[in-house]
Specification:
Elements lengths: L2 H19 L4 H11 L8 H4 L6 H18 L2 H13 L3 H16 L4 H19 L4 H14 L8 H12 L11 H18 L18 H7 L6 E6 L10 H4 L1 H5 L1 E9 L4 E4 L12 E6 L6 H8 L1 E3 L15 E6 L16 H5 L2 E7 L2 E2 L14 E6 L1 H10 L4 E4 L14 H17 L4 H14 L5 H7 L2 H19 L2 H13 L4 H15 L5 H19 L3 H12 L10 H10 L3 H26 L5
Antiparallel strand pairs: 1-4, 1-5, 2-3, 2-4, 6-9, 6-10, 7-8, 7-9
Helix pairs in contact: 1-2, 2-20, 4-7, 4-17, 4-18, 4-19, 5-6, 5-7, 6-7, 6-8, 6-10, 7-8, 7-25, 8-10, 8-25, 9-23, 9-24, 10-26, 17-18, 21-23, 22-23, 22-24, 22-26, 23-24, 24-26
């Protein structure tokens, strides 16, 4: 072992120890190592900075922007809602469906991009279900890594090994050559995570805004439970074609219509009801029952309406459509002494008063005929855009609170089809290989900007620079280990030690060695270094190169053991609140399981002696 190799290994050991201790934070450690490695003389400063121009790093940055576009247009949220609908409140079903969906999407696009896209959706699911985010982020990263075992283009190590086979004069792998291995590993991972989740953090996820009240708190405080109705107007309903003022729903039916959802070409549109609003067949009414004398079933039978289900109390499952805010009547307000009807509150503010507190007690019944007093607290409901106008445009009320759920409001729901089109084009370009992946991602970003799904300010803010620095700072170790001959030295030792032990033992050793190198360097760099070794070993032993090449590719994607083994792991460290030992605790046992499966399954599908 040379002195240069000894220095590199010493720095690598220090890095791992600092990662394990957690101080300083990991991106700071990466910057320190980028600074120290050139002092060894093994690499230059240009080599240390090469990661900043690495196409994969640029691709990751672009995919953050793509993910932000999907979040702002509501696509990510709808994916999370789909997971909740399929899984309900069952954490086990949620983990299973999450892993299946992520692995499926990741089989045709960058696994790093998939994680960047799914993180906001999973965080929202965690908040809405009360499941700790730490119990979901690890299954997310594991499924994204396993997606690399699904198809040839799913991850860079597969393409690296494929190109090595072709360069050596062999045929190479087909598009679906990895699928027979990836699917069983995904099923194993799903079952494993259902067991191993108990080892992850059980603390409740932090609220996006802990100091703010929640919708559920207001529902209890103002006594709103069981007052809500979602009603779809049937085609034969006598309400079709009628204006709200003619129907007089408040007086005749005890209904206060808060909003109307009307289906448009691409997505539903939320309308602010006025006295002149004309109802159409298929309209969905969000109504507050201010009087309870008429059962909803009787009303629906009489008026040809359909009651739609609600999964949360008082439209909390429709929080994206209907917002709430708490207002106070100040001393100089022109509303003092006025009733809501006399003050034309709804017409003026585009909001409906659904709760009123005088002192500490909420007032019950029809609130429209009650004069307002100094210090009254009003709970209003209506479109979020009307709530946002309160503070800047009106002075007869003081905006006291908006709920924590305001952070989840979709900024541009009507832009979802354009965002999906941009992402679909990116995926098609990546699958077809017409242009490089990073170029396809840039094209998607430009289209998102053209469709006004994101702007430059939001794009820059969406990039997680800490994660990028962490990845960039670890890449120079790969170059340093190659330059010092560390990998070659290990491979020669492998041949001398196990050359006579048979192909199965060598397959086991190759998987273990590749996985161990993956602890410290990127899985792509590991594949670059180990693929030639695998082919050389196969030639030396006189067996087919395909089992050994497949073993290296699968092991390179088994980067479960540390947060720096893959960018996928680095992405979930913050949202999952993980430390270095969390990955060791979960990743090491499953790496052993994956290795055992690969050693048993690879010779069955890719024989040593064809």
């Amino acid at each position: 072992m040379t002195s240069e190799l000894l220095m590199i290994l010493s720095l690598l050991l220090v890095t791992v120890v600092l990662f394990a201790v957690g101080r300083p934070r990991m991106d700071a450690v990466a910057l320190i190592m980028m600074t120290l490695l050139p002092f060894t003389g093994v690499i230059s400063m240009n080599d240390a900075l090469a990661g900043l121009s690495d196409p994969n790093i640029v691709l990751i940055a672009a995919l953050f922007v793509v993910g932000e576009g999907l979040v702002r247009t509501g696509v990510a949220q709808r994916l999370g809602d789909l997971l909740v609908r399929r899984a309900g409140k069952s954490e086990a079903r949620l983990i299973f469906f999450l892993m299946v969906i992520v692995a499926g999407v990741g089989s045709v696009m960058s696994s790093t991009g998939v994680v960047a896209i799914f993180i906001p959706a999973v965080l929202r699911v965690a908040r809405n279900t009360g499941i700790p985010a730490g119990r979901l982020m690890m299954p997310l990263s594991m499924a994204a890594l396993i997606s690399g075992k699904m198809t040839l283009i799913a991850t860079a190590p597969n393409l690296v090994v494929h190109s090595q086979l072709v360069r050596a004069g062999h045929e190479g792998f087909s598009f679906f050559a990895f699928t027979p291995f990836g699917l069983p590993i995904l099923l194993l991972a799903s079952g494993y995570m259902l067991f191993a989740r108990r080892w992850l953090a059980a603390a409740a996820p932090e609220s996006a805004s802990p100091s703010r009240p929640s919708l559920s708190g207001w529902i209890e405080r103002y006594g709103l439970a069981d007052r809500e109705l979602r009603l779809r107007v049937g085609a034969d309903s006598p309400w079709v074609g009628q204006r709200l003022e003619a129907l007089n729903l408040r007086a005749d039916c005890g209904l206060h219509v808060l909003a109307i959802e009307r289906q448009r070409r691409f997505s539903p549109e939320l309308l602010e009801p006025t006295s002149h609003t004309q109802l159409m067949a298929g309209d969905v009414l969000f109504a507050d029952r201010i009087r309870m004398e008429m059962p909803p079933e009787v009303l629906c039978e009489k008026s040809q309406l359909e009651i739609l289900p609600l999964t949360g109390a008082y439209f909390t499952d429709q929080a994206q459509a209907i917002g709430m805010a708490e207002l106070m009547i100040p001393a100089d307000s022109g509303l003092i002494g006025e009733t809501l009807i006399a003050a034309r509150f709804r017409s003026r503010f585009d909001l409906s008063v659904i709760g009123l507190r005088r002192g500490t007690e909420p007032l019950q019944g029809d609130l429209t005929d009650k004069p307002l007093h100094l210090g009254d607290t009003l709970l209003v409901a209506g479109p979020w855009r009307a709530i946002h106008r309160l503070q800047s445009e009106f002075h007869d009320t003081v905006l006291l609170n908006v709920p924590a759920e305001v952070a989840e409001v979709i900024a541009l729901p009507r832009k979802a089809p354009f965002a999906l089109a941009a992402v679909a084009l990116m995926v098609v370009l990546m699958v077809s290989g017409v242009v490089p992946n990073v170029q396809a991602a840039f094209l998607a970003c430009l289209l998102l900007g053209l469709f006004k799904c994101v702007d430059l300010t939001i794009a820059y803010q969406s990039i997680q620079w800490k994660t990028l620095i962490l990845i960039v700072g670890m890449l120079p170790f790969s170059t340093a280990l190659e330059n010092t001959g560390g990998v070659t030295l290990a491979a020669d030792a492998l041949l001398q030690t196990l050359g006579d032990a048979g192909p199965t033992a060598m397959l086991t050793a190759l998987f273990a060695l590749t996985a161990i190198f993956g602890l410290f360097v990127s899985n792509t760099a590991t594949a670059v270094l180990m693929a030639p070794v695998a082919l050389a070993v196969a030639a030396e032993m006189g067996v087919s190169p395909y089992p050994f090449a497949m073993c290296v590719a699968l092991a390179a994607s088994a980067a479960f053991m540390t947060p720096v083994s893959s960018p996928v792991n680095a992405l979930v460290v913050g949202p999952g609140n993980y430390n270095f030992f969390d990955f060791l605790r979960i990743g090491v046992p499953f790496t052993v399981v994956t290795g055992a499966f690969c050693v048993l399954a690879i010779p069955l599908l890719l024989p040593f002696f064809p």
